[in-house]
Amino acid sequence: MNPLVSIIIINWNSWQDTIECLKSVLNIKYSHFNLIVVDNGSIDDSIEKLEQYSSELGLNSSGIFLIKNPKNYGFAQGNNIGINYALKNLDPDYILLLNNDTVVDKNFLAQLVKTGEENPKNAIIGPAVYYYGQKDKVSIVGGNLNLYTGMTNYPHLDTHDPGIKSEIDYISGCCLLIKKSVIENVGLLKQQYFLYYEDVEWCYRVKEHDYRIIYQPAAKIYHKESPTSKNPTGVYYLTRNRFWFMKEYSNKCQYPIFISLSFLYFLYHMLRYVKSRKLTSALYHGMRDGIKGP
């Protein structure tokens, strides 16, 4: 029998995206999976719509489980709640984190699981991620991080060539398959990150345990992306969490160089955001809180 996969999808005030995502997942060729939808304290009619959709399919008998959080716990804790539910109740071989604003190819999960089964060291596997609106153009699949600068090289970004299967530093949390045995060994996502860089940190922690992070372009999904650079919440957490991550994973030579370059980054973006007090405030507070640490 194929390995069992628990797919975890976070919903927050976006039931339309979630249901479109669910419909695509329920149409895949790999059949040995269940779905856990974690609602992160939505204040719209998400719960009602998701319950209605689940009941139409046959709740639980269709392998869909709905968890209702009382508030927005963020990406990391929301997924951890789903992971803990799966590990305690469903006994999966793999956990898949999947953004609700994605649509998946029919073969994506079969390709991810196949890659995981090829080698015990293949711990985290991710697909080629394409833009939802430009289905032949590659978006962010993960990346290779420079621990001197804190900057990421994104393989194949904005090209029409997804490349070949390869080992990279991290897989994007928008679609990330991880073995249950690895989670039991290295732990869950770090909840203090709340939003952004929790996937990067998880992958680096996994690599420290001598596992591999694999990009598999034969698996395909399509992602609706929002511009983080124009979102104060996104600017704050990306800035803060970059410092937290670099403080933990760069060495004594790398971190001072990163700090020095970060002030140039700060000045550049302060000029870039000069017309928006919310964005400049988010950048300042993100850098301040990042340097202070968790």
TrEMBL record:
Keywords: Glycosyltransferase, Transferase. Residues 6-185 form the Glycosyltransferase 2-like domain. GO terms for molecular function: glycosyltransferase activity. It comes from the Archaea. Gene3D superfamilies: Spore Coat Polysaccharide Biosynthesis Protein SpsA, Chain A. Pfam families: Glycos_transf_2 (PF00535). The keyword Nucleotide-binding does not apply. Belongs to the glycosyltransferase 2 family. This is Glycosyltransferase 2-like domain-containing protein. It comes from Methanobacterium subterraneum. The lineage of its organism: Archaea, Methanobacteriati, Methanobacteriota, Methanomada group, Methanobacteria.
